[in-house]
Amino acid sequence: MSGGTPAKATAVAADPWAKDGSVAASGSDLQTKQKAVVKDGKAGVFMASFNLSNAILGAGVGGMPFALYEAGFYSGIILLLVVAASSDYSVRLLVRLAVQSKKK
Questions:
Q1: Where are the domains of the chain?
Q2: What's the whole-model pTM score?
């Protein structure tokens, strides 16, 4: 190459919103689409809570058969009951401490 100005390097990324897997033309196009997606989001507290609980429960329910298989059915049920009881106790402690902290 001769001593001219160096070519400008550009990063090309796949467009996550394109259904055909095309490539974004420029960074400004991608930023415009991202802003449009953020502006359209109208989830409230209820939907955010629902999504969080769905994510947590979905992972637990999906792993339950494997955990029972690995531990054995009866020992798995016993372990499940122990974990449920300790979770219940922990939540009750958190609620009790929250009520006590409001009194002070």
A1: 10-41, 45-103
A2: 0.44
